[in-house]
Amino acid sequence: MTVKMVATCLFGLESLLGAEIDKLGCKRTETMDGRIYFEGNEHQLAAANIRLRFAERVYINMGEFEAYSFNDLFEGTRALEWENYIGMCDMFPVKGHAIRSKLFSVPDCQSIVKKAVVSRLSEKYGLKIFPEDSKVKYQIEFFIFKDKATLMIDTSGVPLHKRGYRIASGEAPLRETLAAAVASIARPSENTLFWDPFCGSGTIAIEAAMIATNQAPGLDRDFAAQSFAAFPESIWKEERSKALSEINMDSQFQAYASDIDADVLEKARENAERAGVADYIRFFEADARSIKKLDCRGTVACNPPYAGERLMEQKDAERLYRDMGKAFGDLAPWQIYILTSSENFERIYGARADKIRKLYNGMIPCRLYQYFKPKR
């Protein structure tokens, strides 16, 4: 069967997520900030949850319609075929967002959507009251943007950035999906040493190792749609089996993950163990300002403390960035990828980036400064 889907992501990751969706063999239908609409089958829905590195959630797209009034919202929602998924005893709570639309009261929209779904299911099942006493939950979400409503069912449950390996994290953890993006842009490979000298909880190095070994990020966790009647367990078993068979067990990839904090390194080692990539990462204590180039090809990818926002005061972070510029300048011709929220980073660091990419760490706007061209 054809399933219409929506995958959400952090702002700035749309192109990376779109390429992943294409790789699954799905058909993209629309892209907007933070979300991609696409079509596939039930196997591809399972594969999307298991394999997508840059998605936050995957939804079933129940339908879209113009909603200028509460009556529009009610009738549009009621017209959708909720009975194709939701049973007469299943739970179906509602939440959502309304942005730049005439309908802006989220609580009121929640109430209208709930009443509309109940009305539709009452007609189909002949019930006036729904017990919602099943353990199966269909989380309904609405997204109203510029008066266009999209009604969805969440198939992921726990957000996809929570892979399951990071039980312990540092003081300011980087979201796994963003770490995967930094690692992916830095292109981890077997013949190039990958080094994060501000490793913290180890997330960038772990995600790099997972990419280099072709390990799907969702192999060790469950998803909400595993309990949906429309997606039997056999589908999930088959897609997990495929993903497992594609892991490169013989990879020669090597990463260094260092940090000045010995305590956080122990947490990072534990995270790598749980992720199944500890054999590819060497963790050790070191000051990022004193790292030395080795006799090999290398790439540095890191997320140093943000000036005034993450772990450091403004003047201390700026001093660190100046010291990084001096130390990392000696690593040439290694490639350098630095994620920071500092808009003046290039000036403080002392070198103009070859490319800058705007990304978001949660709600914090950041830039990935990329230094990859040989310097004359």
Q: How do the helices and strands follow one another from N- to C-terminus?
A: EHEEHEHEHEEHEHHEHEEHEHEE
Ranges where pLDDT stays below 50 over 5 or more residues in a row are none
Largest sheet: 7 strands, mixed
**Which sequence of strands runs across the widest sheet?**
2-3-1-4-7-6-5
CATH architecture of the largest domain, by name, is: 3-Layer(aba) Sandwich
| SS strand fraction | 15-25%
* Content-based structural category: alpha/beta
* CATH fourth-tier homologous superfamily of the largest domain: Vaccinia Virus protein VP39
State the CATH topology of the largest domain.
Answer: Rossmann fold
Total number of beta strands: 14
End-to-end Cα distance, whole Å, is 57 Å
At the first level of CATH, what is the class of the largest domain?
A: Alpha Beta
The averaged pLDDT comes out at 95
Number of domains: 2
> What best-fitting shape do the alpha-carbon axes yield?
elongated
Secondary structure: helix percent: 25-40%
Radius of gyration: 23 Å
Question: Count the helices. How many?
Answer: 10
Concise overview:
By secondary structure, the chain is α/β, with parallel strands linked by helices.
In words, what does this structure look like?
With 376 residues, this protein is α/β, with parallel strands linked by helices. The chain folds into 2 domains: 3-154, VC0802-like, CATH 3.30.2130; 176-216 and 248-371, Vaccinia Virus protein VP39 (Rossmann fold). The protein is built from 10 helices and 14 strands. Strand 6 and strand 7 form a beta hairpin. It is elongated and about 75 Å long. The model has no long low-confidence stretch (mean pLDDT 95).
